[in-house]
Amino acid sequence: MDKFMKRAVELAAANVRNGGQPFGAVLVKENEIVAEGVNELHNTYDISGHAEMLAIRKAQSELQTHDLSDYTIYASGEPCPMCLAAMYLSGMKQGYYCASVETAAETGLGASQAIYADFKKPKSERKLSMKQIPLEEGQENPMEIWQNKQ
Ligand SMILES: [Zn+2]
To answer: Which of 33, 44, 124, 141 has its CA 20 to 30 A from that of 27?
Structure first.
């Protein structure tokens, strides 16, 4: 196994022994580990405390950049939609995972698989209801302010 994935899996196993979920991630650039993370949901009241999110946050905070386009993530588990979106938003172009969301679901960690399945449905049929509330006439429009500043 690739040394970076091996490290991610080791982090995940250690996290389980420490009371957490089996997820670890390492962020790599030019064959060097830049940041690591493990799922910290057992320690924090932060639903975004996933291994990949924490590795990305650490790197961006230390490097003072939003751009991780030259970085690669190695995650012990296939990223959930939130982490995958963070990877997209950071400009990342590739990542690797070990356990799939299907495997995670088989071990009782099925949230990612359920969300991915929900995303395939039309908005109106999803489990989470999201409805638009349009601006009222004459109301300040933040999008217009933004557009005019460009
Ligand atoms: Zn995640």
So the answer is: 44
- Residue 111's closest CA among 103, 121, 101? 101
Candidates 39, 105, 34; CA nearest to 73 is 34
What are the tokens at 124?
A: 């109106």
d(CA 146, ligand 1 centre) in Å: 30
pLDDT, tens digit, 9 for 90 and up, residues 3-40:
999 999 999 999 999 999 999 999 999 999 999 999 99
Which of 66, 61, 70 has the alpha carbon at shortest distance from 86?
66
Residues, the chain: 150
Cα dihedral 94/97/102/106 (nearest 10) = -160
Both tokens assigned to 50: 């996933």
What are 108's two structure tokens?
């009782």
pLDDT digit string (tens) for 38-85?
999 999 999 999 999 999 999 999 999 999 999 999 999 999 999 999
Between CA 70 and CA 76, with CA 75 as vertex, the angle to 5 degrees is: 160
At 10, the amino acid letter reads E
For residues 89 and 65, the answer to whether their CB atoms sit within 8 Å is no
pTM of the predicted model, to two decimals? 0.94
144 catalytic per annotation: no
